[in-house]
Amino acid sequence: MQMQSPATIDVDKAHSPSLASPFPNIDGNLLFDLSPLPLTVLTPSCRIARVSDRFLHDWQVSREACVGQQLVNFLERYLRPAGSPAVAHLTSAIDDAISSRAERTTKQITTKHASSWRARVLPIFKEAELVGIMLEWQEGPAALDESEIVRPGLSTDEAFRILVQAVKDYAIFLLDTKGRIATWNTGAELLKGYRREEIVGKHFSIFYGQDDLAIRKPELELEICLREGRVEDEGWRYKKDGTRFWANVIITAVYKDGVHVGFGKVTRDLTERKTSESRLIAAYEESEKLKSDFLANMSHEIRTPMHGMLSACSLLLDTPLTERQQDIIQIMDESGQVLLQVINDILDYSKLASGSFSITSDIVGITSIITSVVRSVQTTMHSGVHFELFLAPDLPKSVQGDPLRYRQIVHNLVNNAAKFTDKGTIRVSVSVQMEDEESYFIMTEVIDTGIGVPEPAAAGLFTPFTQFDATTTKRYKGTGLGLSIAKSLAELMGGRIGYRPNPDRHGSIFWFTAKFKKIKSLEQLQDWKRKVSGSRDGSPLPLSSTAPPDLQAEFSKIASTKSLLLAEDNIINQKVMLGMLRSIGFKNVALAANGQEAVNLVRGKPAAFDLVLMDINMPILDGHEATVKIRQSGIGVPVVAMTAYALKGDKERCLEHGMDDYIPKPVEKQYLIKTLCKWLVRTKDYRMSAGEELARLQDLRSRLKPALSTLQLPLPIPIPSVPSIPLQTQVFTIPPTIPPTEVTDLPSPPKQISRFPPQVFSPSGIQPALTPPTPRTEASAESGSQAESNANASSEAPPLLTSPEVQLTLPPPPQQTQQTDAIPESRASNNSDQIEAQTNNSPHQPEAEVPPV
Amino acid sequence: MVDFGDHVDDATFSQILEMDEDSHDFSMPLVSNFFEQADETFEQMDAAVESKDLSELSKLGHFLKGSSATLGFTKIKDNCQIIQQYGSNLNVDGSAEPDEDVCLRRIKDALAAVKVDKAELEKKMKKFFELEK
Prior knowledge:
Chain B: One of its GO terms (biological process) is phosphorelay signal transduction system. The complex is a heterodimer of chains A (about 850) and B (about 130). Chain A contains 32 helices and 22 strands.
């Protein structure tokens, strides 16, 4: 408080006669003391000088307790709460009144007895001198301070209560700490159907359904609310009449002076929104389904006539035509091809975009896919372009994945490279980027010396409908979807795709990775399976209920010469199967009572049985495990599963474990005959091809020996068993020591054999192996002369490729000492036709079962 | 000819009968072997029920299902299937049934039923082979 002109007023002096009224019969002191107003007189220093009786009464204090006290000290004891800002408010009002010499009225000030007062501040001056301050207290309505509003079940602020009470669209109510309902508003009554008197005091879990109660949702909500201060939930809540509504519920923990006193709960009815949401979802799903159905139909409906047209075009091209006609039809054909590609792109893209594109799981021969793509693309290449193919030696022969989709990406990248490269090389390089227990990550790179990609366009390469250059759009037709599709496909196959500029020369490097599953330990038998699968397409035999009589007769003749192994643990089934087999002509049937016995029998006599009938569910070793063991021993005897499961997927599982076929139980005789007939009559004997192969391998080995001893250079034969050596390293470590002339002096047949490992894609008229071991950037430059000098040596080879421009660079040479071993191993998986071809000095046969162009 | 009703799948069973060469030299001992096997299996099943060994029950169910299916003894086969399913904590429709007590109860029911089926069928078979003699 500001102390102005510290005049001293003696308390007694205030009663001096000089202040007395001119009307002596009226005592001013008495008037003051008995005034019906609560009054306080302050000295200029704000000490309480005098109070009226009414003040003492209203404030419930004694005269001694206040007179003589500093106002501030007095108020601090009598106001509520202690240290209330009201004291400061009052003193500042007094200061204000003094300085402005005018009366002031304070806001409400609450005493500790819950009465509320305003002070009218009257500064009293004698000329310039302040003689005192009169406070006249005016009582106001009992006010509560804000923190007191929420006290469940107790009075709340009127306006607030009216507001809450009147809200009809929200149920707003309070719960006590236990979750019992304490208040109830109109909204709650309307929404939930309970009246206030029947619901207050009940636990709020009454609104929840059985499902929510079973998981203790109400209790959990309160727990979370206590922990986090608030909880929000959407779900079904129940009305009094049992109907339910979709509710949004917000529960807030309510505290008073730091003590938890209950929960505020606000519930909104979202049933209508929920309904419209589910209508929307249903409509969306419906339209998605229509869209994908439409796409499926479109792809068929459009492609079928397109194929018809294209076939007709190519037939027409083969007929005698004038030059002009020829040109026209050529244009039709090309336009048709482009259109077909565009349609395929759009359909693929729509499928990918809608997520309805699925990746199938099949056996993938990466090498054969690459070679076949390269060959199909090279026919469309510019004449000044050479192909180089790098296949890492550790590349798995076959893996599990989607061969079509892998091919599609490779084709897209290679095709782009061919489109945009006028001269130089296109190099395709495939290696194992990473390998774990389950899978390989295969890195495929396509490196060209073409026009490249301008830097600003590189970012948008994989964006749909983008073509980086308007001029290329005119020159090269397309949708601009190819790379975007390739990207989605690569991602579907668990890989990535990318671009970087070719650091060697002008051009691009497009690369992608794809994840393929390993064909664990079954690799060799899968290859074996592929061999025989030439005679079947993997689909079930079209079996009629009865075999033609002549087939049965013919069959029983053959059956008597065949030896079977029956693995079956149930004696009844054994007997029946034996009876059945006997009745269809079998004389030699060995029995195994479990999988282990079957394995022992087959291993004991690897060539004794023509076929094994294998029950699946057997003790000790089941049919699946037994088959895997037999295959691991390298025995290719046909194994036919018998099981009563007959569920979808059973057959697939059997085939996965290396079995060849499947007969459902109970075994039906005609079906048995058909199946056995297929494997015993129509399929090539597994032992025969093995024997032939052995003989051929020995022959190969003996022929190779002299050749290898003459050759003092490391031969470019990759050894499949070499652990993954980084491809790049190998390519650059070829010592450039042997000039081409020296190589052509080599004895011809063995040289060729040694030069063409199965992975290598070899065009006719070129001796890729004789590419001098120079760094790869120079490889294509020197290859031309070499091709000529070797033309004689390779002329006997069947022409595989029509373009003599194609240049192949082989994977780098491994160590020489390992080569003789490597060849039989790498041949082991070739099918017998190829084996024969190779023994006839036709080493240019690629491993892949791709027919020559 | 004895009417086997729904006990027997005629096509499968006649396939067995076709393998007979002289009277029922093949099928008759086979069927009686089957009933012996069934009795043995029932005993093992009873023991497994006693020890609440569900996986053993599943195995036994599968085992007897195999031979009953081969002979075309449909009713027995179906109940064996039920035993096998519940032995693997599965309902007949293939959905999971995690409550072992429920599984065990269902198995007990099926086991009781299959014993009745077997007894009925055995009677019919006896009659069948006698008549055919």
